[in-house]
Amino acid sequence: MLYGNLNSFYTIYGGDNFGWAVAALEDLNSDGVVDMAVGVPHSDDVAAGGAGAVYVLFLETNGNVKNAQKLSLSYGNLGSFYTIGVNDRLGTSLSALGDVDGDNIVDLAIGTYADDDGGLNMGAAYIVFLETNGVAKGAQKLSMLYGNFNAFYSLQASVYFGYAVGALGDADGDGALDLASGVCWADDDGGTNMGAVYVLFLDTTGSARAVQKL
Description:
This protein has 214 residues and is mainly β.
């Protein structure tokens, strides 16, 4: 809150954990300077305690923030597509995926490891389709209730799907971008808390058309 001009746009509060995750977004607004996303998973976002948030930061060449857009339940239009609940921890992990939907704008994967779709702390990930101003023009959630993930695997309670996310490029050569999502320490395949990773083969809507568990 004291450096880099972010406080001209938003207020960061104690306990928000700004900077928990970061991802380069290429040059989102086409001004010749690379931009970035920053995860703030303990942001209270007005009324939803611990719902989390992500800031899209448009940078100057000296690293200062010349503009910013918050993505959360209350900002950046993300709440038009899904409700982010108390203690979901949106922004725990981030990854720029490239152009998933073919509109020539980079899109963003956001992990929400404590989401309760289908059971307590099962976790989720959002594929957020961005506008050049950082606002969400669309979103696809991947969880036990959305995005066709449950056609392939079932998550256990408290496995924390989405604790990590990573872009894979076009892993299977079908022309669509793919995603890896970590379940971190809590998956019990083969023994308690052995952990797991899911490789999600996406279609251009962000839904899973196939999934492979590792």
